[in-house]
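user: can you give me the structure for this one chain? tokens are fine.
assistant: on it. calling the predictor now.
[tool input]
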Amino acid sequence: MPGVLRIQGELGVRLEEVREHLARLEHAYNSIYAFERIIASAERLAQRGPWPAPLFGLDPFGWPGFPIRTGRLLSSWPPSPAVVASVVPGRDRLVLQAARFESPGFWDFLRSLNPLEVIRQYLNDRHERRRDREYREAAEARRLDLENRLLENRVIRERIDIARSLGAADSDLTPLLNELVHRPLRALNGAQDEGVIESAAITDQNQERK
């Protein structure tokens, strides 16, 4: 299902910074898409069963029978941004649909709704924490708080529930969550701290076309 993510922020930044921020945003999108694809592939394999052992009871990066792109993603860990991007088919690649180049401005990104929704929640949760002057916990505590909130995100929670129903333990899910959810999203922190990214919203694609 397609969606449009609108990110508000200050756009008067150097070109090299814009390239870096857009690359990190694309990698976060690709990574969350890849996380979803891994869980969906495992679910399809389980439906073909019976398997001699639980899918998530084996080496989590050596499951047999995955689609070629998913198998490539899991063949070496952690995966490079190029390998993660190779999992995303052309029809689902992130697209810059529109932008307003003034301050404050915005970026509109079009593509698969679920990864965009995860990014939206992360940016908004972090935006609210930065605005709360009474929020004085240590950086590590803030990081854990944001990661715990992500685990309650509908998209992530549903995939975790599916994986656990297939026999996944925390030790199986932790590397996937760290490399395909938490770490790519944390890479957006710098842009938000600099004001290039502030908050985000999912907009009505049909309304934008009117």
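assistant: here you go. The chain has one domain: 2-207. The longest strand covers residues 2-9.
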